[in-house]
Specification:
GO terms for molecular function: oxidoreductase activity; protein serine/threonine kinase activity. By secondary structure, the protein is α/β, with parallel strands linked by helices. It has 10 helices and 8 strands. The N and C termini lie far apart (about 65 Å). It binds 1,4-dihydronicotinamide adenine dinucleotide.
């Protein structure tokens, strides 16, 4: 008997015809969930459309005795994905935004479509799906959402200005949605995975492929989507069996007084950037604390 179980729950996983999404779908199904397997069936660069990847994963789940239904719409039509869940199973509890592709190129060569196609599939796609699911999650006072980010978004990466932008924006969505969902038991988190898939085919070796199985990422997604989790607004990294969590770190900073010029910043840039006595603001109220102190000091000095 598993502690984490998804009996009675309906999970929608986008881009679940391949790679990480497929692994997530099989895990959720094994743990009792009814699964909507969404996949538009594109190439790794986002070309074409094909229903067979979604159908194949549904067949695999059914052959294991699980329950699943396929949806081959694009995440950009998010409402249709949620409709599939409602039509097939009458509810939706969990959304894993995972669909996407790459359009890597250095910034000076990036076309408008390289930019917009990537923003559309990763960021706008997650928006469209989350927006369609959100009222249903609110109504039932239960929901779990995982948005899929990337190290490229957290740290930046050459040739991925479009993708890095979309992926970090997804964590912005996570953080704000987590606040809005708090009262309704809707927990929202971001996972930045590292796993061998079509997307990494050209950059990793065969040995790395064996170590970076998508199945090593799915358990974190499963936990974050479970009733047992109370994590929300978090940013996690996972790959090859290693799991970690990130948070913001801010320098203690420097409060300057009087008429402040760029020269004053120059004189104090080391103090401003000194992380030796860093803080870790957890929310906007904590983040504003130094401004409040500086304002108080300014008022007292008048
Ligand atoms: P993958 O290419 O194996 O799977 C992505 C799936 O998304 C494909 O089956 C594709 O058909 C589907 N898809 C593409 N456009 C779609 C659309 N408009 N609507 C619905 N489905 C669509 O890729 P992988 O590696 O499994 O990636 C999954 C997610 O993880 C992506 O968001 C990716 O950016 C992210 N990621 C993956 C990393 C890795 O190491 N594999 C690293 C960091 C992030």
């Amino acid at each position: 008997m598993n502690f984490v179980s998804f009996e009675g729950k309906v999970v929608l996983i986008t881009g679940a015809g391949n790679g990480l999404g497929k692994s997530h779908a099989l895990m959720f199904a094994r743990l009792g969930a009814r699964v909507v397997v969404n996949d538009y069936g594109t190439t790794a660069k986002g070309e074409g459309a094909d229903k067979s990847p979604a159908d194949a994963v549904v067949d695999e789940i059914k052959s294991l005795g699980g329950e699943a239904v396929a949806n081959a719409d694009s995440v950009e039509d998010g409402a249709r994905l949620v409709e599939t869940a409602m039509d097939a199973f009458g509810r939706i509890d969990i959304v894993v935004n995972n669909a996407g592709f790459l359009r890597d190129t250095s910034f000076h060569k990036m076309s408008e479509s390289d930019w917009f196609d990537i923003i559309n599939v990763h960021l706008n796609g997650a928006f469209m799906v989350n927006r369609a699911a959100w009222p249903l999650l609110r109504e039932q006072n239960f929901g779990r959402i995982v948005n899929t980010a990337s190290a490229a978004g957290i740290y930046g990466n050459f040739g991925q200005v479009n993708y890095s932008s979309a992926k970090l924006a997804l964590h912005g969505m996570t953080q704000a949605l987590a606040i809005e969902g708090q009262k309704r038991n809707i927990l929202v988190n971001t996972v930045a995975p590292a796993a061998a898939s079509r997307l990494t085919d050209t950059v990793i070796s065969r040995e790395q492929t064996a170590a970076l199985r998508p199945e090593y990422v799915s358990p974190l997604v499963g936990y974050l989507c479970s009733e047992e989790s109370s994590q929300s607004g978090g940013l996690f990294e996972a790959g090859a069996g290693w799991f970690g969590k990130l948070r913001w770190e801010r320098s203690r900073g420097a409060a300057l007084k009087g008429e402040i010029t760029p020269d004053d910043i120059a004189k104090n840039i080391d103090a401003i950037s000194d992380f030796s006595d860093a803080t870790h603001p957890r929310n906007i109220a904590e983040a504003f604390a130094p401004f409040g102190e500086a304002m108080g000091a300014a008022v007292a000095a008048r």
